[in-house]
Amino acid sequence: MGKLHKKGKAGAAVNYITRNQALKKLQVTLADFRRLCILKGIYPREPKNKKKANKGSTAPATFYYAKDIQYLMHEPILAKFREYKTFAKKMAKVMSKGQYSTAKTLAENKPIYTLDHIIKERYPTFTDALRDLDDALCMIFLFATMPKTDKIKAEAIENCQRLAAEFQHYVLHTRSLRKVFLSIKGIYYQAEIKGQTITWLVPYQFSQDVPTDVDFRVMLTFLEFYQTLCGFVNYKLYSDVNLVYPPKLDLKLDEGGAGMNALIIESTQSTANIAKSINQSAGTQSSVDVASLSKEEKQRLQESEKRLQTLSNKIAHIQESNTDEPMNGSGSSRDNDNDDAMDEFPAPLPNLDGTSSSTVTFSDIQKASQHLSQFQSLFSNCYIFLSREVPRYSLEFILRACGGHIGWDAVLGEGSPFDENDERITHQISDRPTQGHRFLSRQYVQPQWAYDSINAGKILTAEPYYVGNTLPPHLSPFVEAKEGDYVPDQNQFEGQTEDLEIESGDDDEDEDEDEDEDEEEEEEEDEDAEHKDLHQRELEAEAKGVAFTEFEAKENKKKKVTSKAAAAAAPAAPMPTTRTAGKKRTAAEAEEAEAKELAKIMMTNKQQKLYNKIQYGKNKKAAEVEKLTQKKEQLAKDAKSANKNKKARK
Questions:
Q1: pLDDT digits (tens, 9 = 90+) for 293-345
Q2: What Cα–Cα distance (Å) separates residue 371 from each residue in 174, 268, 365, 452, 457?
Q3: Whole domain around residue 39: which residue ranges?
Q4: Where are the beta strands (DSSP E) in 98-176?
Q5: Is residue 271 one of the residues assigned to a domain?
Q6: Residue 442 CB coordination number (10 Å)
Q7: Residue 413, CA atoms < 13 Å, CB-side half-sphere
Q8: What is the pLDDT of residue 273?
Q9: How many whole angstroms separate alpha carbon 325 and alpha carbon 333?
Q10: Of 526, 307, 261, which Cα lies nearest the Cα of 412?
């Protein structure tokens, strides 16, 4: 006889624990428990059988893993929470007695906790931190635009603004931006950093009303964790590209509304200066404090001196190799031989089914790298001026991230590199239907031109985006259109490179006048043809000696009789041709239909139900696409009729 198991001593009853039981075990309040779970990344769990997990009770309860709660018992922050409660009690007692000097000393010794060890626990590698950066950036950019309230402190808002600006500067410096999309919620950005795709949402810079039905205690706990995470990530990113972190802030430019230009981005010292400073510090330390150093520190000094001695030789070797390779003919031929060898032996990429039909060669990798370098310098030859009514905070970021030279109106802030009357300007982004004055040497486009050009990966022609024109559809770059999906007509000039020469407004007016004249000539030709037909019928009526009205009535009766006879005879006469065409058309389709029917017969009931659901979804999707297409055609017809009515009125 096997061992008897007592009820509630194994299985789900032991693996899960309710929230009330967790609070008693940890001896914390519900608010502290929520904060602790958010910081440690512990979430409620849903057991398969709630009744078993709750030891036979059917009362509603929130469950956690028992191991997670046991893990929280050894958390250092838990002790800090208790210390802070003790501090709060002491502070309240001292303040009630009026002992302000004692309160000051207590405030100086206030218990403070850090989340550094939690970041290291939850993200053991830097790649893990980058993968979880989407929500952190969304939260930080959200609070960077929030107003100061009694719940949201000004320090948190300023810190979020600093972290957001630092991350944007890194994207500008490395030109990591890939996609942009304007939506109702805000502006979606996507960047590729260290091989990881990061997407975040930035709200529009409008005045926001803070909602009252939002629990800001929970959001601020998330914000506290995300601020620490972004601080770690920004430090690592800046140090990898040899930039000083944190960047310095120019207070004058910041007060003048310079935006991202207020941050001073500096590179770290050169290797020679570093070597000199280390040599000097090592020399002074060895001459003065060598005797007081330990054995380990002496060994470290000796190792650093050996590395510094070989550093100059390595730098010289690298410089020689960089300068000699393009000048040496044998080196280029060797590279070509390597390219040919890589092309001859491509590396196969396995498909999902295990086959290796597609291959990637060295030339493909070269093309991809060239395309990426071209995209990163997309606006490098463009000098773009931003008018005062466009969103500078977004346009400056995306255009500079692709190598553009940006200037802006003085109303948008200080620090513009060039003014509006600069002759180098090729484009001016404006959102006004009319301009007070125009420069003929530049093109006036709407802001959507910049976003669509980045998503297309090339500079689109500016004609559809001229100021005052109806803009083409702004499609999301994050959605890949599948077969059968409804896709609006994209810009008809897409795929053409941009011509920087712009025609004057008089030429546009001349073209419109020419089009109107052509349409009027076509209408006159149609009217002349109708007059000729009418005159011919009048002559026929006079030749027969019949009134014109009677002649028209007889002709209409003849037409009706002939149309009825043709309709009655239509199924018999042209049937052989239609049948032969039908046989030719359905010969291949009949086999497919039979194969489908046989496949349906061989299906089980479960498979048939699944197949019917798939077909129902496809038919529903096709009906929606047809509905949108008809709606689009109707709108086009209404637009044409409206234009005709306008011309008729003129």
A1: 555 566 666 666 665 555 555 545 544 444 444 443 444 444 444 444 334 33
A2: 16, 30, 10, 17, 9
A3: 12-108
A4: none
A5: no
A6: 21
A7: 22
A8: 54
A9: 11
A10: 261
Is 195 in the same domain as 83?
A: no
Q: Based on the fold, state whether residues 497 and 602 are members of the same structural domain.
A: no
Residues 129 and 244 in one domain: yes
Is 562 found in the same domain as 474?
no
- For position 327, what pLDDT does the model report? 40
Q: Are 488 and 473 in contact (CB under 8 A)?
A: yes
pLDDT of residue 276: 57
Q: Are residues 138 and 238 in the same domain?
A: yes
Contacts 24+ apart (CB under 8 A), 42-50: 42/68, 42/71, 42/72, 44/19, 45/16, 47/12, 47/15, 47/16, 48/12, 49/12
Return the residue matching tokens 């803009």: 471
Name residue 187's beta-bridge partners: 182, 202
pLDDT computed for residue 310 by the predictor:
58
> Tell me, what's the pLDDT at 341?
39
Partnered with residue 292 across adjacent β-strands are none
Q: Which residues contact 625 (CB under 8 A, 6 or more apart)?
A: 484, 485, 486
Q: How many structural domains is the chain composed of?
A: 5
Out of 184-193, 233-242, 252-261, 567-576, pick the least confident.
567-576
CA–CA distance, 484 with 629 (Å, rounded to integer): 12
Determine which helix (DSSP H) or strand (DSSP E) holds 201, and give its type and residue range.
Answer: strand 196-202
**pLDDT value at 390 more than 80:** yes
- Is 202 a residue whose pLDDT tops 90? yes
Assess contact for 404 and 426: CB atoms under 8 A: no
Residues 413 and 470 both lie in one domain = yes
Question: Which residues partner with 179 through β-bridges?
Answer: 190
Are residues 244 and 266 in contact, defined by beta-carbon separation less than 8 angstroms?
yes
Beta carbons within 10 angstroms of residue 40's beta carbon: 18
Q: State the DSSP H helix or E strand holding residue 385, giving kind and residue range, or none if neither.
A: strand 383-386
Pairing of strands 383-386, 427-429: parallel
- How does pLDDT run across 498-509, given as a tens digit for each residue? 443 334 344 444
Residues 188, 451: Cα–Cα separation, whole Å: 11
∠ CA(517), CA(519), CA(521), 5° rounding? Answer: 70
Q: What is the dihedral of CA 433, 434, 438, 441, to 10 degrees?
A: 20
Query: Is residue 48 one of the residues assigned to a domain?
Result: yes
pLDDT tens for each residue of 107-150:
998 888 899 999 999 999 999 999 999 999 999 999 999 998 88
205 DSSP 8-state letter:
S
Count of all residues that appear for the chain in the document: 650
CB 247 within 8 A of CB 264: yes
Tens of pLDDT, residue by residue over 496-541, are 444 433 343 444 444 455 555 555 555 555 555 555 566 566 666 6
Q: Please write the tens of the pLDDT for every residue from 250-260.
A: 777 777 777 77
Does 255 lie in the same domain as 136?
A: yes
